[in-house]
DNA sequence: ATTAATTTAGTACATTTGGTCTAAAATACA
DNA sequence: TGTATTTTAGACCAAATGTACTAAATTAAT
């Protein structure tokens, strides 16, 4: 219901009606919409965690990064309301907000580390300007946070698989112009298959 | 009120209270929140139009493009609710939705033309892959549509000028790795000043 | 100055919502 | 089996919202 109607258009009472239970019952388990959303967020985190464990870290750095992106996109798609109504949710749930910021910080550090690795492996070009890649990471952040919003507006008629594929491709292509020759070749191998 | 509280948290009655008029009076002029938002959108369009007229087209292509971005960001900042609640608004206003899609199409064409010009002027590198720049334009679209949402979450404590500057810089840097040597030099001249 | 049109305010109503309280039903447990 | 705990439902309430209708006030026009 959150995914299709948007968080602001779904009330506790509507959810309980859909579930066929009384609204008091739903409130008994989740005292309001915010705690319900927190529980759903916990589900997202757990899915992301088990994803992280399942990834084979023996593969090359770029491949690990890209499968991480692909799988991450798949997971969040099922909870797309969370990203589409992100600002609404963050505005009205301080606890979730600070938790989200913490996770974002980790994500930033992870990308920074990965990029350093990729530079060391001569897959990415070294920085020519100061903090050049920091900008790239911020670009990544905006697209990671809002690709689902963008898809809702511009790709309403596409199917989920296509949407996920096209936007994860969009994200990966942020690296594209920074690739070395060998990086370029690897990129092509990873993305055409 | 839309900017600070979010569209969904502001009612016709709250607006009329703030204005010191009766809610029936407000409804007399704008029959509901949607038509009110449409009117505000019209204001945005008019501001954008007069911006377009004011820009000196004698300057070089990149400079025209970049001042366009800067000024555009400044304009939309005043109506940031529109971008932050974009999906909510589009979901609930079919007319505005189709109008928005039309404008987006124009924006896409404009960028395509500009990029072709910049390639011809040897400021941007020619495409090495098929539709490579189409991806860039889509990246531009996501950031253009959602930089204000991102800023609301990650830069809540920054002042407007800094926010506008940092995110317009983020957008411009999408072009950065595609610049030729001369393009690079021009870019630096335009962005450091 | 009188009339017509526009603008404004007030009231009333049905609906929805979040919340609280109480009691019944179901379940677990000893 | 009897008791305690957990779960569920129902009723109730105050607040807010959109909407519709009526009448007064203001403005414009002849």
Q: Which descriptors apply to this entry?
A:
homodimer, 193 residues, Tetracycline Repressor, domain 2, 2 domains, 11 helices, DNA-binding
CATH architecture of the largest domain in chain A: Orthogonal Bundle
What pair of chains forms the biggest interface? A-B, 36 and 36 residues
* Assembly type: homodimer
Helix content of chain A: over 70%
Q: What structural category characterises the helix and strand content of chain A? A: mainly alpha
Radius of gyration of chain A: 19 Å
Q: Report the count of strand segments of chain A.
A: 0
Tell me, what is the CATH class of the largest domain in chain A? Mainly Alpha
The CATH superfamily of the largest domain in chain A appears as Tetracycline Repressor, domain 2
Q: Which descriptor suits the 3D outline of chain A?
A: elongated
Largest sheet of chain A: none
- Ranges of chain A where pLDDT stays below 50 over 5 or more residues in a row are none
Characterise the protein shown here.
Two copies of one chain form a homodimer. The first copy, chain A, is an all-alpha fold and 193 residues long. Chain A folds into two domains: 1-31, no CATH class; 33-192, Tetracycline Repressor, domain 2, CATH 1.10.357.10. Chain A is built from eleven helices and no strands. The first copy, chain A, has helices at 2-5, 12-19, 23-29, 33-54, 61-78, 80-84, 86-92, 94-120, 132-154, 160-172, 181-192. In chain A, helix 4 runs antiparallel to helix 5, helix 5 packs antiparallel against helix 10 and helix 8 (94-120) packs across helix 9. The longest helix of chain A has 27 residues, at 94-120. Chain A is elongated and about 60 Å long. The relative contact order of chain A is 0.10. The A-B interface holds A 6, 8, 84-88, 90-91, 97, 100-101, 104, 132, 135-136, 138-139, 141-143, 145-147, 149-150, 152-154, 169-170, 173-174, 176-178 and B 6, 8, 84-88, 90-91, 97, 100-101, 104, 132, 135-136, 138-139, 141-143, 145-147, 149-150, 152-154, 169-170, 173-174, 176-178. Chain A binds a DNA duplex (30 and 30 nucleotides) through helix 3.
């Amino acid at each position: 219901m959150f995914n299709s109607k948007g968080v602001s258009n779904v009330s506790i009472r509507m959810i309980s009606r859909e579930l066929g239970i009384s609204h008091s019952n739903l409130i008994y388990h989740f005292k309001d919409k915010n705690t319900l959303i927190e529980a759903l967020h916990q589900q997202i985190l757990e899915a992301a965690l088990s994803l992280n464990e399942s990834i084979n870290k023996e593969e090359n750095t770029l491949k690990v990064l890209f499968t991480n992106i692909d799988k991450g996109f798949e997971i969040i798609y099922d909870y797309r309301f969370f990203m589409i109504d992100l600002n609404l949710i963050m505005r009205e749930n301080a606890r979730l907000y600070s938790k989200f910021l913490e996770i974002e910080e980790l994500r930033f550090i992870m990308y920074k580390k990965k990029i350093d690795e990729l530079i060391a492996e001569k897959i990415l070009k070294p920085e020519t300007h100061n903090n050049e890649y920091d900008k790239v990471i911020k670009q990544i952040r905006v697209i990671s946070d809002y690709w689902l919003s963008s898809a809702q507006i511009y790709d309403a008629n596409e199917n989920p698989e296509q949407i996920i594929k096209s936007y994860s491709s969009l994200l990966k292509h942020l690296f594209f112009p920074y690739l070395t020759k060998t990086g370029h070749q690897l990129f092509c191998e990873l993305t055409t298959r």
